[in-house]
Amino acid sequence: MSPMKLCVPGERLCSTEDCIPGTGTYLRHGYIFASLAGYVLRKNEGEELPVISVVRETEAQLLPDVGAIVTCKVTSINPRFAKVHILYVGSTPLKDRFRGTIRREDVRATEKDKVETYKSFRPGDIVLAKVISLGDVQSNYLLTTAENELGVVVAHSEAGAQMVPVSWCEMQCPRTHSKEFRKVARVQPEYLQA
Amino acid sequence: MAGLELLSDQGYRLDGRKATELRKVQARMSVFAQADGSAYLEQGNTKALAVVYGPHEIRGSRSKSLHDRAIINCQYSMATFSTAERKRRPHGDRKSSEMSLHLKQTFEAAVLTELYPRSQIDIYVKILQADGGNYSACVNAATLALVDAGIPMRDYVCACSAGFVEDTPLADLCHAEESGGGTALALALLPRSGNIALLQMDARLHQDHLDTLMEAAMTACKEFSKVLDSVVRQHLEEVSDLTRD
Fold first, then answer.
1. Same domain, A115 and A40
2. Is residue A8 within 8 angstroms of chain B, CB to CB?
3. 3-state DSSP: chain B helix, strand, coil percent, rounded to 5?
4. Is residue A41 assigned to a domain?
5. What is its main location (chain B) (predicted)?
């Protein structure tokens, strides 16, 4: 990594014969230009040409992209889909909430026709999901929980206590010991800290 | 003119500037913590405040979202106390609607909107004190706010106004020169590539003088880009000093 060098939008960094454009740059007429104000980063990753990118001190607003793991909160459910608000992209919080939809067919990978939305999510649950589409005009981001690591991670029972997952489709209240149905995520260790 | 002489015989203007001299420019970035990007700019006695929100989800009617790029929403307004006579309507009148459209076209040419599909970028600009060159102050302030928000751009957008008096082009008009009856040209430029983002002109001008006038305006825009460049670099160093501690 070369020493830190400031750059501003529109500044020409190098030619395409010397570098590969990364984030924060754009390509025009065979040259790579900066599109952000920040520091130039030149990284050799085993290839012939280094990747040049521009990084900022303060992180800019992220947008959920296809394939990103997002953390969301269920806002409403009906027999066909569940509506959620996306709160985090990966581990980065969003300033604005983005609306998403989890369809009944995308809740789990097996037995899609037997899925019941009321036994998978409840309003107020915190859900891990993956973005599969940016959606169309009516609905925004389409999300899926059809993986073992995706699903409900935090849920509260009717008594108000946070429930403990006991199996892939059940959660139990530690106070009243009643069981409720959820599509439970097998939470990875790195998410437990969050 | 009998009453007002915009350019004296010695080549000085009303406020003592030379013909191609800019007014003093002062600017600050990150003046608001609530906005994603914000900037305050003074061009002489013209003061502009710009805030940027986004990219965020489309608000309002979702039918106007574009599937391949972000939409830019601009609003221009003037404070009621910004002019010599108090304005009754800060925004929404015909002039500010036209100015909002001009700002929108200017930044659609500069911002890399295709990186944020189906989202929206809001730019709000307010004139706190008006003394000529309102459009150029708004464009320069909004450019700094977009850089502060971290929105990728092709280049700075630098805007400047220019006039033509006694066969001499004047750069960066003040209010007296704008209302003195001469030509007023407003130009927004991406200075490194030389692309013109917006061009607007009032009043009459012979075609032979247009090249001279546009050349003067482009030169003034490049001077402005140097000022904006130093403001951004200074802000970057301040931010890195803060995060380093």
1. no
2. yes
3. 35, 30, 35
4. yes
5. cytoplasm
Q: Which residues of B are less than 8 Å from A135 in CB distance?
A: 118
Q: How far is A93 from chain B (nearest CA, A)?
A: 13
Q: Which of A8, A35, A98 sits opposite B57 (nearest CB)?
A: A98
B25: amino acid identity, one letter: V
Span B58-100, pLDDT tens digits: 767 657 677 788 989 898 998 989 988 787 666 677 778 988 9
Indicate if A73 and A49 belong to the same structural domain.
Answer: no
Residues A85-129 have pLDDT tens digits of 888 888 777 766 677 888 888 887 876 777 888 788 889 988 889
Same domain, A72 and A12: no
The nearest CA of chain A is from the CA of B192 a distance in Å of 7
CB B40 within 8 A of CB B31: yes
CA B9 to CA B13: how far, in whole Å?
A: 10
ipTM: 0.81
Confidence of residue B47 (pLDDT cuts 50, 70, 90): very high
Residue B161: closest CA among B207, B198, B205: B198
CATH pick for B21-243 out of 3.90.420.10, 3.40.30.10, 3.30.230.70, 3.40.50.1820: 3.30.230.70
